[in-house]
Known about the structure:
Two copies of one chain form a homodimer. By secondary structure, chain A is of the alpha/beta class. Chain A has helices at about 20-30, 30-40, 40-60, 60-70, 75-100, 110-115, 165-170, 185-200, 220-225, 240-250, 280-295, 315-330, 340-355, 385-390, 410-415, 430-435, 450-455; strands at about 105, 135-140, 145-150, 175-180, 205-210, 230-235, 265, 270-275, 305-315, 380-385, 400-410, 420-425, 460-465, 505-510, 530-535, 535-540. The first copy, chain A, is built from 17 helices and 16 strands. Chain A has a six-stranded parallel beta sheet with strand order 10-11-9-8-12-13, sandwiched between helices. Chain A has a five-stranded mixed beta sheet with strand order 14-2-1-15-16, with no helix packed on it. In chain A, β4, α8 (about 185-200) and β5 form a beta-alpha-beta unit. The longest helix of chain A has 24 residues, at about 75-100. Mean pLDDT of chain A is about 90; it is low at about 1-15, about 115-125 and about 435-445. At the A-B interface, α5, β1, β2, α10 and α17 of A face α5, β1, β2, α10 and α17 of B.
Amino acid sequence: MISGRFDGHFQKEPGLERSNLIVELAAATRDLPAASMALAERDVRAGLLEAIAAALDAARVEIITTTAEETALLPAELEPEFDRMTGTLRMFAALVREGSWVRAAIDMPNSHSQREGAGGRTNTGAPPLIGPNHDIRRMLVPLGPVAVFGASNFPLAYGVCGGDTASALAAGCPVIVKEHPAHPKTGRLIHRITFAAAAGVGAAGALGYIHNEDPTDHSVAKALVQHAAVAAAGFTGSTRGGIAIHNLAATRTSRDGTPDPIPVFAEMGSCNVIIVLRHAFNRHAEAIADEVAASLLARVGQQCTAPSVMLIAGYDKAEWMYTALADRIARAPKRRMLSSSVAANYYARLDEVMASGAIEDHTTYPSPAERDASLGVPVVLYTQAVKMEDAPRLWDEIFGPGLIVAGCGSMAHGYFCTPKALTVAVYAEAEDLAADDTALLDEAFIGTTVEIVREVRQRAGRIVFNGVTTGVRVCTSTVHGGPFPATNRPDTTAVGPLAIERWCRPLCFQNCPDALLPPELQDANPLGIWRMVNGRPTREPVCRGGV
Amino acid sequence: MISGRFDGHFQKEPGLERSNLIVELAAATRDLPAASMALAERDVRAGLLEAIAAALDAARVEIITTTAEETALLPAELEPEFDRMTGTLRMFAALVREGSWVRAAIDMPNSHSQREGAGGRTNTGAPPLIGPNHDIRRMLVPLGPVAVFGASNFPLAYGVCGGDTASALAAGCPVIVKEHPAHPKTGRLIHRITFAAAAGVGAAGALGYIHNEDPTDHSVAKALVQHAAVAAAGFTGSTRGGIAIHNLAATRTSRDGTPDPIPVFAEMGSCNVIIVLRHAFNRHAEAIADEVAASLLARVGQQCTAPSVMLIAGYDKAEWMYTALADRIARAPKRRMLSSSVAANYYARLDEVMASGAIEDHTTYPSPAERDASLGVPVVLYTQAVKMEDAPRLWDEIFGPGLIVAGCGSMAHGYFCTPKALTVAVYAEAEDLAADDTALLDEAFIGTTVEIVREVRQRAGRIVFNGVTTGVRVCTSTVHGGPFPATNRPDTTAVGPLAIERWCRPLCFQNCPDALLPPELQDANPLGIWRMVNGRPTREPVCRGGV
């Protein structure tokens, strides 16, 4: 529901009923070519992101009030999420204005003397020539319009103007957002606000919105990802939903029946594991219990980075931690989940865990009779890591405030099973790092921190030390991603500046006259950006010399 | 067919019959964990690449002789391809030794004063803090074992030790190569040589090889891309083959039936277009005809960058070019194609073009009766660009020495139809760049170079000026890729240093003790590599200060 010719209110009635899908899609896609052209100017892109952030700031109270009512998330939880949303928009604006993100690279033709080198670098420092002696220049360019499928659990930071939208607009890609049925009021409010902001900077068609208030109606998602005008998609949500979008995108066809796949970046479910080593436990057990309980309870456990499994070195320590966590969560106020279907899925997942037969203790586990459909009751379950080795379903995400605490007699029973995930956390002290700790078998604990890190780094996108898995800093180095099933694209991140590259492809120019090059690649480097020139980073201009 | 326990000769007989697939796969995958561990050391990776290059150099004459006999490519064509193969291996060795390719990035915790900034950068130059104030450090890490499906047409540069293998080994990924049925002798010879080289540097299991001499046997490709030990795949070949591998990889499942997709990088068919503008034609027509004819005839047209369509501004000019090219190709010696099936596909494709009814002149087109199954007869066909607008099949690749020359009354009839491709070339003079050239309608030519470049850059991976589409320089800026159908992964390149990133994913460490960090991310920067520190490139060490 958007185009330059609408005012942001598509439906005739103030209610939430969805307008005709075909009409909405036509309206949302009609102005994409004009929007793409507008977004080709980096000042327009940066100005748009800043205007959206300012417009959202001006409506801060209304947005947070609306979202809190619709999602049962607390204003205290939504305040930092709001700041992250606007902070991310401004971060990408700054990235676009600075300009070096395009990864500009220039290889000048080698001079005659340089060409005589063989192997490694030549005497002059330039790499040896392979192939014809062309002038080659490369930068990132936008893929085209992006369909954004936001998350249920982060209505702001992964919503209409969340990370996918901000990074795609920054790259120069117009965006069409599919409404999330878990918070249509929030989505429409944000879209109305940002629509006006976009129109104000001459990029009205850059941010579209398609209604989808019925959670059982998948026709909207299907039509959007298969639309010929859509060049890529971003998804945040369940594994099932992500796989469905991934498959639709990978196998879609043109009108004439020929294949026409597009890239999808799906950030999905993740079983995040927290590992606690011996000395760390001995020194900080109470503090760790406090941190983990808070991490589990925040947002009713509805975070992709929330822990699902906790591995503790030593059975006695694990039992202590289990009891400590059970005490803490029992004292927490009972809270509603995002929706009754989210709550139902949470309990179904707990039941699946219990049905494995591997759980030894479960005092907080509510029987079906004890459950309130609207509430997400926090649960900790106890077992031994050795019992989880042959139970792969125990290593799936528990979406909600549920945690399996597992004691490890030998750490080898635990960390070799850790699943592919967004995040893994390790609590370790300096003594836990010592290599000769392998000799201390008094607790039958054979895993050293070095070995554990070597192992888990093969399976996670982010490794946290002495802290919980929740709480993501948004910065250049951030990786919010990981191997499947955490995502379908382990080569990227959904958070941080690097996310802009998902919506781009490299393009190179061979022997191109300076006047035809984008400013990023011109000899004089008029934007003053960092570029790789003959394989080395520099902000200096280049001189074509004898070419 | 490989493992550390074999000597490179698997089959009992000297013939080419394939051994049992299951046994071969088991042998090739058994030592992958050990190979991955060996390749984790950058000195091993660089040493392996250098050892392979040296071993190939020592067998240069034998390899080129074997390949020329098997593929009908000329030694004069294979000599530069051989140099490109070894040059690429050494280029990646140098990249690995230098080390900055891992895109190391470090974000230190902001100090209290820095946190007070809002929007843009703080007074101290650091970006404002978004989220918790962690120390975050990121670098690229290998995806895991890679299956390589080499090309028929570049038995060396895209073969057993071609670009995919070199870039994957450089990234730290062991490789298993599927034999190409078009040149099994070349493949086995190179594998035998490189197997010994790999064993010599302690990485014997890093380069596997599976026999597949029967071109109708697709079971090998299927088993390899679906093997649980394989984490990614590289493919170079036809669109049909690439799509098949892409779909198998996107929809593969684990033993328990859950989805287990892996990334595939397929570089496929490409319809490369050469555009000749008015002034460029007037000044250089003969030279352009010489260049394009040579580009078409080289390697019997069997290059992914060979031109399939040539658009000329002006009907009279196009007719002249058609005649000039027909003369030149008629004088060329008749040559065998890679195989009789490649030749059969070439003629089938020409017949498809003719069946469109859009071709106006075709003096060089051989009737079925005039064809020799072993030869690829060069063909140029003439039409008007306006007739190609509604004939999408004319914009598909012609794999072989076939070219459609199309005259453009208005350039708008041509360049708006150019397909998504690896490469497009534009011949233009300074006068063709002038914006007021739009007013010069004496030849009904309305496209200026600026407009044409703006249009074609949306659809190509490489734009060439005043040169042919063939001939790729291997350097930092090279992009050998493009939107589908040229590739299934427009975000990457199959040639040049950037290709190493295809086999990697980013991993980040949060608040990690220095002793546990890889050297690339340690405070002291012991490798002296370029890193992004607090968002800015530097080779300086970092100091944790008050953290």
